[in-house]
Design brief:
Layout (H helix, E strand, L loop, with lengths): L1 H34 L2 E2 L7 E2 L3 H8 L3 H33 L4 H9 L6 H11 L6 H8 L15 H10 L4 H12 L3 H9 L4 H12 L1 H16 L3 H4 L13 H10 L3 H25 L8
Antiparallel strand pairs: 1-2
Length: 291
């Protein structure tokens, strides 16, 4: 009898969470997956059209494979340079050198700036006439230097990459938190055994924060798959299709009232996100105990 009432109480406490999960995640995602196979303008009832949305998505003007190539390149840079920079800053902060509190404060500033505002800031930064970057290059002797960073190829790809490449605050926070959680006894034992500074980083700190690094990679790569503002508000996918990505395909579907096409693009993004999650879970063995 007591166990029965316990189960009732457990179900009662879980019910609100399950309800919110169903209403705000499972139902919308299910709608996206189902309507990806339908012709739907948002006004009339959706009509099943098989794989037409996916065929149109993949075959139209070769943009899908360009978008996929861009996502792959950005994901590789996110998993290596972006996460590597965030991890490096976390290790530097962990040593608490002089001025580390100031550096930490300055490094966190981008957290309070929206991605849209960040994109506009960089649009001005890279502007050929009034941008700081070109002025600096011309001031050191390259007086004829003129590059429209967001409108010239291949400069646009690298300019967009730079808008997020060093924006690795959350990676730093996750890794720094795991570093702070390492028991002091572990480092003290290593010092007694004669371990060097580099040896402790390589054989103790890095292995013990590998899950944090794996989490950072998942967040960084999925952010690149879902990235929109930094592209839409700067190059708008150009020049040509140089910086096109799947979120712009989704956006184009929405503004053209082709919600079935947009949801097919969204389904591809969901599948890519799941693939990244499974891959990183396997490589970093996220389900295994750290200690």
């Amino acid at each position: 009898m007591k166990i029965k009432w316990l189960n009732v109480w457990i179900a009662a406490f879980l019910a609100p969470t399950v309800l919110v999960l169903a209403l705000f995640y499972i139902v919308p995602i299910g709608t996206v997956l189902v309507t990806g196979f339908m012709e739907w303008d948002g006004l009339r009832a959706p009509e099943f059209n098989g794989l037409n949305n996916y065929i149109h998505l993949i075959t139209y003007d070769n943009t899908f494979f360009i978008a996929l190539r861009n996502i792959l390149l950005w994901s590789l840079m996110a998993a290596t340079l972006h996460v590597g920079f965030g991890t490096l800053v976390a290790f530097v902060l962990y040593k608490k050198h002089i001025g580390w509190r100031f550096v930490r404060g300055v490094f966190m500033v981008p957290m309070v700036i929206s991605a849209a505002a960040w994109a506009i800031i960089y649009k001005l930064f890279f502007n050929d006439e009034i941008g700081i970057l070109n002025h600096m290059i011309r001031s050191i002797g390259f007086s004829d230097f003129h590059v429209n960073w967001f409108f010239d190829s291949p400069a646009s790809f690298f300019a967009i990459t730079l808008t997020w490449l060093f924006y690795a605050v959350y990676v730093t926070l996750i890794v720094y938190n795991d570093l702070m959680a390492i028991p002091k006894e572990v480092h003290e034992a290593a010092l007694l055994d004669g371990a060097s500074e580099w040896g402790m980083i390589r054989h103790i700190n890095l292995p013990l924060v590998k899950k944090a690094i794996g989490t950072g990679i998942i967040l960084s790569v999925t952010a690149r798959i879902a990235g929109f503002e930094e592209v839409a508000l700067t190059s708008r996918g150009g020049p040509g299709n140089d910086t096109y990505n799947i979120t712009l395909m989704l956006y184009d579907g929405i503004v053209n009232y082709n919600y079935g096409y947009a949801n097919a693009a969204a389904t591809i993004m969901i599948l890519l996100g799941i693939l990244v999650l499974l891959l990183i879970n396997r490589v970093f063995k996220m389900n295994e105990s750290t200690y």
